[in-house]
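2024-03-11 09:14:02 INFO worker-7 job=invfold-0412 stage=load source=structure_tokens
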């Protein structure tokens, strides 16, 4: 379905974002549905914007393995629901205490802390339900179970939530090590990205060898994504990011710039992106859009 107007990566990302947003709106309860304030809070955070990178990774992985990406559109949305839940909770006063997200007030600022906690809970639950339901059809049944297991593993205590816990505990670490920062990043950010790729790859019936290569690509872009996130926090501003900068240093977070310095972090970022590109090109269809997505992650401004 790639059209001539979609040749550049920016156009590709914009077109996928549009598809994902439409499907998300269809899959989430309307803001008029009971209980209204909860659904309004969910929609406030989900539709404030966002790059939709995790769903796009899922779609692009499916395309790489030769599948019609519309077959994985709903699971892709499930990943975004889970990601947005993680952002709502990450911003809470007890965690990072942020008041701006995706260019708008954070969920707890707009709707109160209790509603924000419940909106996060609801998005997690709804997201998992999407993996149980879609894609429909008997031929997907075993693959769906595998995807659900992969997602649950990747967002649990030995994945994303474990990484979030370690991120918070490391605020009190006087001298965080490189190993500690890599472990935090791999878990709080990398695991959901790897699961997003795996979901697309599994539902496109990729071979085990190709799924392993895809996962290696995911490790590289997951790390690169969070190095870039840390660098943007040091080097950018709220108007560009849609979230406040300078927060990591103020909170004493264990980040790449803290442990490696900004210059080495930039070099590490560039090297990790090149490794990801190299791995992606060894996938079927030369990784389809995955090499360009890796470069986008390194170059992004928000
Ligand atoms: C921000 O993720 C949280 C991290 C894991 C660093 P994104 O930068 O993908 O946020 P959105 O979805 O585009 O808002
Ligand atoms: C957030 O990491 C990771 C998750 C939400 C799981 P950060 O705390 O660095 O993300 P930002 O900078 O607030 O977006
Ligand atoms: Mg955080
Ligand atoms: Mg944060
Ligand atoms: Mg950050």
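2024-03-11 09:14:09 INFO worker-7 stage=emit residues=302
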């Amino acid at each position: 379905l790639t059209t001539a107007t979609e040749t550049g990566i920016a156009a590709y990302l914009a077109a996928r974002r549009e598809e994902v947003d439409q499907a998300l709106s269809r899959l989430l309860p309307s803001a008029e549905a009971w209980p209204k304030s909860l659904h309004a809070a969910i929609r406030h955070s989900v539709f404030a914007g966002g790059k939709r990178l995790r769903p796009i990774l899922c779609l692009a992985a499916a395309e790489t393995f030769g599948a019609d990406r519309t077959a994985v559109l709903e699971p892709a949305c499930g990943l975004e629901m889970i990601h947005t839940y993680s952002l709502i909770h990450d911003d809470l006063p007890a965690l990072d205490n942020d008041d701006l997200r995706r260019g708008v007030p954070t969920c707890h600022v707009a709707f109160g802390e209790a509603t924000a906690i419940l909106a996060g809970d609801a998005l997690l639950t709804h997201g998992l339900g999407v993996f149980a339901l879609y894609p429909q059809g008997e031929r997907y049944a075993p693959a769906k179970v595998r995807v659900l297991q992969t997602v649950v593993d990747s967002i649990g205590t030995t994945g994303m939530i474990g990484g979030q816990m370690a991120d918070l505990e490391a605020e009190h670490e006087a001298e965080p090590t490189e190993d500690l920062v890599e472990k935090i990043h791999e878990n709080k950010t990398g695991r959901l990205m790897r699961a997003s790729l795996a979901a697309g790859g599994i539902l496109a019936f990729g071979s085990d060898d190709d799924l392993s290569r895809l996962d290696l690509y995911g490790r590289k872009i997951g790390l690169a994504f969070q190095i870039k996130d840390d660098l943007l926090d040091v080097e950018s501003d709220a108007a560009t990011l849609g979230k406040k900068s300078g927060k990591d240093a103020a909170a004493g977070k264990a980040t790449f710039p803290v442990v490696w310095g900004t210059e080495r972090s930039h070099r590490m970022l560039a090297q990790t992106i090149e490794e990801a590109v190299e791995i992606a090109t060894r996938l079927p269809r030369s990784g389809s859009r995955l090499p360009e997505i890796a470069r986008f992650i390194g170059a992004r401004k928000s």
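2024-03-11 09:14:09 INFO worker-7 stage=report msg="The longest helix spans residues 208-235."
2024-03-11 09:14:10 INFO worker-7 job finished
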